[in-house]
Amino acid sequence: MLAPSRARVLTRALGPSQASAITLPSFLVPAFQTTQTQQPQSRSFSATPAAQSKLGRTPISIPPGVELTIGAPRAKIDRTTYLRTPTRTVEVAGPLGTLNLEIPPFMNIEYDTASRMVSLSVQDQEIKKQKEMWGTKWSYLNRYVRGVSEGHTTVLRLVGIGYRATVEERPNEEQYPGQQFVVLKLGFSHPVVMPVPEGIKASAPQVTRILLEGIDKEVMHEFAAKIRRWRVPEPYKGKGIFVNDETIKLKQKKIK
């Protein structure tokens, strides 16, 4: 029996009657035969079995002075699809402030008041979305607990000739009582004035240093990124605004 593709070629060349009468030598028969082989079963690229999230399965310790309140399930309206999805809100209150975290419906949270430990789990560990949100929500909750108890800090370094920074209060421009403004001198013809978001405290211990303190690390780093955007570190002279331990590899000057 000839393979389908090769049989069609012989049929076109010799005709159907002559092609069916052709006999092949025994050593060529295996090459023209179609073997019924089973399709290999599809398997994942990795042979490692599915494991739990390393972060999600780790309990979170609640320090003294921090209170955790798990709200009842409620319906939340999605602004894109206008669908009602069930969700819960976890309130983390501490000596420095209060933060709220929304938990999706497929995630379970257990709070042991005796040992002051919080553990998170999901309904199905095989679903990719649930496994991704497992570690993400754990990181958010751990960050919130640390923020309301100890706080987060970010240091910005101004590197460049004439780069200066001060923190001022401008009563005529403030959006809420006691709002601060970061004033930057970065070589422009005018100073750059940036209002500090609510919940963040800014100070300038040195003329080339800006210290940001707050309980919400995400909001604080977003404000630090806005400041850095005015003078992104450049690789030829190493000038710019650096956040925390940020470094840059210097390049050689372009020689024409």
Automatic annotation (TrEMBL):
Molecular-function GO term, any one: structural constituent of ribosome
Gene3D superfamilies: Ribosomal protein L6, alpha-beta domain
Keyword NAD: no
Record-linked InterPro entries: Ribosomal_uL6-like, Ribosomal_uL6-like_a/b-dom_sf, Ribosomal_uL6_a/b-dom, Ribosomal_uL6_bac-type, Ribosomal_uL6_CS
Signal peptide range in chain numbering: none
Domain Large ribosomal subunit protein uL6 alpha-beta: from-to ranges: 159-241
Region annotated Disordered, chain positions: 38-58
Pfam families linked to this entry: Ribosomal_L6
Cellular component GO terms, alphabetical: mitochondrial large ribosomal subunit
Residue ranges, compositional bias (Polar residues): 42-51
Protein origin, superkingdom: Eukaryota
Keywords, alphabetical: Ribonucleoprotein, Ribosomal protein
GO BP annotations, alphabetical order: translation
Similarity section: Belongs to the universal ribosomal protein uL6 family.
UniProt-recorded name of the protein: Mitochondrial 54S ribosomal protein YmL16
Organism this protein belongs to: Cercophora newfieldiana
Lineage: Eukaryota, Fungi, Dikarya, Ascomycota, Pezizomycotina
